[in-house]
Amino acid sequence: MRMWLCPRTRVPVGASALAVLVLCWIYIYPVYRPAGHQEMVREVLDFGSGWRRNRTALDSIRKQLDDCCDPVRLFSVTKQNTPLGENMWFDGEFLYSLTIDNAVYNLFPQDTPFKHPLKKCSVVGNGGILKNSRCGEQIDRADFVIRCNLPPLSREYTEDVGSKTQLVTVNPSIIDKRFQNLLWSRRSFVESIKAYKQSSIYMPAFSTKRGTEPSLRVYYTLADFGTNQTVLFANPNFLRNVGKFWKNKGVHSKRLSTGLFMVSAALSLCEEVTIYGFWPFQMDLNGKSISHHYYDNTLPVTGIHAMPEEFIQLWFLHKSGVLKMQLAQCTEEASPQKSQ
Ligand SMILES: *[C@@H]1O[C@H](CO)[C@@H](O)[C@H](O)[C@H]1NC(C)=O
Ligand SMILES: *[C@@H]1O[C@H](CO)[C@@H](O)[C@H](O)[C@H]1NC(C)=O
C-alpha cells in the first residue's frame, strides 16, 4: 500500500510547476485565437473591392435564419406572437419569466410594423472606422436604415454616417446612465430622440430583469409627449434563438452584440444588406489608429461580447456575397452601388 503513495510525493516540485505553467500558457494563449488586426487587414486588402452579391448564398443563409429564428414573425413582441397571459422567459436571465398581463399586452403592436420584404437596408455599427468615411450619403440611400444604441447624428457626423433612421436600438442601461432612468426630467430624452425622426425604437425589455422598467418608461414617455417615434420591444425568443444560431457557428460570447442581432434580422427582413462601421480593431486599413466609436473612445466592458469572433463571421458573409461590408471610404466611384 505504501508503495503506491511514495512515487506521487516524489514528483519533483519543478515538474509540477512546469505543468502548471504550460496549462496557464495554453489558457492565456489558446491554440485557436481569433485573427488579429494585422492578419485581418491583410485579408481585407487581399480580397480587394471585387465584391459581388450571391443570391444562392443569401437564400441559403436566409433559409437557415428563417428556420431557427423566424425574424419576420418574431423580431419584436407583438400581440400576434405573444398572447395575453403568456409566460415570457427572459433570454438574459437564468430562469426568469414575466406573465403578460393586460397593462403590458396593450403596449404591443398588433403586428411588426414593417412592410416585408424591405428592399435595400443599411445596418450601421458605430465603429471608429466610420469617422472620415464619407459614407453618410450612401447609408441614407438605402430604403431602411438600422442604427445601434442611440448613436449621435448631429451635423458634424452626418457626412460620415448619414441621418436617415428607420430603426434604432436602445440599451436600457443608457436610459439609466444618460437620462437618470427618466425619473426626473424626461424632456432632454424627448429632445435627443428627435434626431431619429419617425424611427422605431427597439428595446430589449424582456432580456434582463433590470431592463424592463426603463424600457416601459421609454414607451410611456414617448406616448405622453406624443412623439413621432414608436417603441418596439425585442422578442426574447428571437434573441435567444439568434444567439444559439451564432453559437453553433463558433461565436462564443456571453451575449451577442446588438450589431450582430441587427444584421441577422436584416438578412431575413431585407433583400439587400450593406453593413457599415463593423470593424472591432483599433487601426484602420492603412494602419492608422482609430477610436473605438465614431463619436468617442469609450472601450466596451470586457468579457461580454466577442467582437473579433463576430467580425470573422461577418467577413465570411461578405466574402460569400451574402451581404456587403463597407470598410473603405465611400468615394465617388464606389458610390453608385450596382446591385445584382
Ligand atoms: C454562390 O454561392 C453558392 C453557395 O454558397 C456557391 O456554390 C456558388 O459557387 C456561388 N457563386 C458564385 C458566382 O460565386
Ligand atoms: C413629427 O414630425 C413632423 C414632421 O416630420 C414634425 O413637424 C413634428 O414637429 C414632429 N413632432 C414631434 C413631437 O417631434
Structure description:
One of its GO terms (biological process) is oligosaccharide metabolic process. It is a single-pass type II membrane protein. Disulfide bonds join 121-270. By secondary structure, the chain is of the alpha/beta class. It contains 14 helices and 9 strands. The chain has helices at residues 2-9, 13-28, 37-47, 55-69, 71-74, 102-105, 136-140, 155-161, 172-179, 187-193, 209-225, 236-248, 258-269, 307-319, and strands at residues 87-89, 97-99, 118-124, 144-147, 167-169, 200-203, 230-233, 270-276, 324-326. The chain has a 7-stranded parallel beta sheet, sandwiched between helices. Strands 1-2 form a two-stranded antiparallel sheet. A hairpin with a 7-residue loop joins strand 1 and strand 2. Helix 4 packs across helix 13 and helix 9 packs across helix 11. The protein starts with a helix and ends in a 14-residue tail after the last strand. Mean pLDDT is 88; it is low at 1-9, 28-32 and 334-340. It binds 2-acetamido-2-deoxy-beta-D-glucopyranose (NAG) (2 copies). Residues 194, 226-228 line the site of one 2-acetamido-2-deoxy-beta-D-glucopyranose.
